[in-house]
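Hi there,

I know you've been waiting on this one. I reran it after we fixed the sequence typo, so this is the corrected version. Both the input and the resulting structure follow.
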Amino acid sequence: MSIAQAARDLGAGVAVFALAGVGMGLGNIFSTLISSVARNPASRPHVFGIGMLGFALTEAVALFALLIAFLILFA
């Protein structure tokens, strides 16, 4: 294994490290969503849309991190 291949593999691993933050963020979003609906069920229509927007934006970060890792490995 050459030094360039080792650096490429290390860079891809660091890029995928962002997925740990995404997992924690998604857990935080949904735990807060469930907690807020459990406290006040009437607020569900308003809170659910905001929770789904947060989910989509957080999941986009995961897709970007995965894209960067694949670009590092295969480009």
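Quick highlight: The two ends are 18 Å apart (CA to CA).

Best,
R. S.
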